[in-house]
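[Target chain]
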Amino acid sequence: MPIQYLLDENLPPLYREQLLRYKSDLVVRIIGDEGVLPTGTLDPEILCWCENNGFLLVTNNRRSMPVHLAEHLEMGRHIPGILVLRRPVDIGRVLADLVLIAEAAEEDEYFDLISYVPLI
């Protein structure tokens, strides 16, 4: 299955617009989109949705996401991966790395992991 991204609702829609500009066949959803999760969904539910639907989560939630991932894994669950934006955010580098990941990553390369973008 190709890489698919679920963008956290706190990321600007510009991320999806630019990702699709660079790679039009990429599947990019944002929390709040029809058929996805509603805005305000709690992080543990987001992780379950990503697991069930095969999406890598892209978020700027550096503080609590590691805790939620640990709890998710302790329950015997899994996730295709979490990509957390580094500070300060360089949107150009983030977008370039997200496209690179989508084009070059192995299907399970980010499985059950938190990684940071830009990749550096």
